[in-house]
Amino acid sequence: MANLLQKISWNENLYQKPDISGYYIEQGNDNYIAHFGVGHEAWNFNKSDLVDGKVYGYLKAEVSTLFNEKHNIFFFSRNLNGDLFLVGYYKDCKYLAEEERIKLRERMAESGILDKRINQVYRILRDEDDFSEWSWDDVEEEFGFEVSSFKLEVLPENVIIFDKKIPFTEQDCIDVLEKGWQERYGNYTFIPDLEEFMSKIVEKELV
Questions:
Q1: Which superkingdom heads the taxonomic lineage of this protein's source (predicted)?
Q2: Residue in 65, 74, 55 with CA at minimum distance from that of residue 8
Q3: What's the rounded Cα separation, in Å, for the pair 32 and 23?
Q4: Residue 107, Cβ neighbours under 10 Å: how many?
Q5: Does residue 136 sit within a domain?
Q6: 0.90 cut: is pTM over it?
Q7: 139: exposed, middle or buried (C-beta count within 10 Å: 0-12, 13-18, 19+)?
């Protein structure tokens, strides 16, 4: 099991459905959100669109050492002012191998969830000048991969979103992680001591 810290795009809908807020924060940067407007993590804390009773969330990293293992993953984001916030976390989530994600994509298509999510993104992007020429097919190409982009399997009761995003600083990370963190969406940072991370960053804001 690994304890990970992972950046995701900002979202004003509590990660229940997509919005465009992350795009305006990332404009001008060289990352997925800046190029495509909406990220796959927009549903990471959605407990309504269950597949076989489970939540399936997004993590960009493709790391075989994570496959078929259980992990605790803490998600953070950066707002328009550049401030850092912990959004929530997955407890004991499984990182799916490719063959599992192919089956998941089929199940999401059968259930209608995949088309629902593609349509949500399409309706948002068509009203934005920078993406107004995108067709439904363009959005499907980004969000309807044959291998599902949703790689994390977790029970709904282990999906925890904070009532209020928890602020933290780069120095907080250095103090706890003994280094900074990976800012890029495709990278993650190992949390060496989960108990210390919880007490010094998470729980100090919850008490």
A1: Bacteria
A2: 74
A3: 9
A4: 14
A5: no
A6: yes
A7: buried
